[in-house]
Prior knowledge:
Blueprint lengths: L1 E7 L3 H20 L3 E6 L5 E6 L4 H9 L2 H4 L3 E7 L7 H4 L7
Antiparallel strand pairs: 1-3, 1-4, 2-3
Amino acid sequence: MFIAIVNYKVSIEEVERNLADHRRFLDENFAKGHIITSGPQIPRTGGVIMLSAPDIDAARALLADDPFNVRGIADYTIVEFTPTKFCTEALRGILCKD
């Protein structure tokens, strides 16, 4: 499992002009099961993408096709981790407790 920290390199106006294509990329990869969740950082300096890939090279290859990457809109820091706890209810907005 991987977390990609997305950091914008351009103005928010330039990000907005490319957002529809970025969201199409996300939607396609949600449908394929590659992306688990995504959303903007607060403050809006970039975003976060959680993805499932067999290895770091596959994660990099997936993100290489993101229009934000292709067009030089953002840089990506990819962190690999091993999930040891998971709460399906949290995905539905229900608080999970340890």
